[in-house]
Write a structure and sequence with these properties.
Number of strands: 7
Strand content: 15-25%
Helix content: 25-40%
Order of helices and strands: HHEHEHEHEHEHEE
Shape: globular
C-alpha cells in the first residue's frame, strides 16, 4: 500500500462497527468491526507506513474485536503482536475468530495492574509501536501510559486512539506535557482523534 487511496480501498473491504462513526460514508458493516474514523485511521496508517523504522513489534492495549490488530498484522507483517484486553467490550468474543489466522500473544485482565506490566516485562520485547485504546478516562489512560511507556523502544512510537475525547485531552495537557522522553509527531482529529509520539529519550 503506497498511497492513502490504497489504504482506504483496503479498509473499505474489512468492515467497520457502524457508519455513524463515519457519517456520509457507506462502509461495509461487520467484518472485523473496526471502531475507527476512516479518515483518521487512513492518515495514521499512512504515517506508520512511512516511518524511519519498520513496525516489527506491536503492543495493543485495548483490543475489543481485534480489528485494529488484524489491520496492523496484515499491513506490517510484524514478528510480534501482543494484545492486552480485559474482555469487557461487547465485541471481545469476535476477536478469536477475527484473529484466528494471526499469531499473537495475549494478556486478559486489567491493563492498569501489575500483572499486565509483569506479563509485558517477561516477554522481554521492546516495541516499535504501542497503541493505547483502553480505558479512556484521565485516570485510566494515565495508568496505561505509566505501565507501558518504558516498553516503547528508543526511536519507537506510542499511539493513542480517541485522543480528542473523554479524559485524553487532559492527560496530554498534564502527564504527556511534562514527559520529555516523548515528542508529538502525528496528530489528527475528525471525530475521535489519533495521536502518535516518538520516544526520543
Amino acid at each position: 500500500m503506497k498511497t492513502k487511496e490504497d489504504i482506504k480501498q483496503y479498509l473499505d473491504t474489512v468492515g467497520f462497527d457502524c457508519n455513524h462513526f463515519n457519517p456520509g460514508t457507506s462502509l461495509k458493516i461487520g467484518g472485523i468491526y473496526l471502531q475507527q474514523h476512516i479518515e483518521e485511521y487512513t492518515d495514521m496508517l499512512y504515517f506508520l507506513l512511512n516511518l524511519d523504522i519498520p513496525i516489527d513489534n506491536i503492543l495493543e492495549v485495548g483490543s475489543a474485536s481485534g480489528g485494529n490488530a488484524y489491520v496492523l498484522a496484515n499491513i506490517f507483517k510484524p514478528t510480534n503482536i501482543v494484545i492486552i484486553d480485559d474482555n469487557t467490550h461487547h465485541y471481545h468474543q469476535k476477536r478469536y475468530e477475527i484473529l484466528k489466522d494471526i499469531q499473537y500473544k495475549e494478556f486478559i485482565g486489567n491493563s492498569q495492574g501489575r500483572e499486565a506490566r509483569k506479563f509485558i516485562n517477561d516477554l522481554n520485547i521492546q516495541f516499535d509501536f504501542v497503541y493505547i485504546d483502553a480505558d479512556h478516562s484521565y485516570t485510566g489512560v494515565t495508568k496505561d501510559f505509566y505501565n507501558f511507556k518504558d516498553s516503547v523502544k528508543l526511536g519507537g512510537y506510542l499511539g493513542f486512539h480517541d485522543a480528542g475525547i473523554k479524559g485524553l485531552p487532559e492527560f496530554f495537557n498534564t502527564e504527556m506535557s511534562k514527559d520529555n522522553s516523548f515528542e508529538l509527531v502525528f496528530d489528527v482529529f475528525h471525530r475521535f482523534g489519533n495521536k502518535i509520539f516518538k520516544r526520543v529519550k
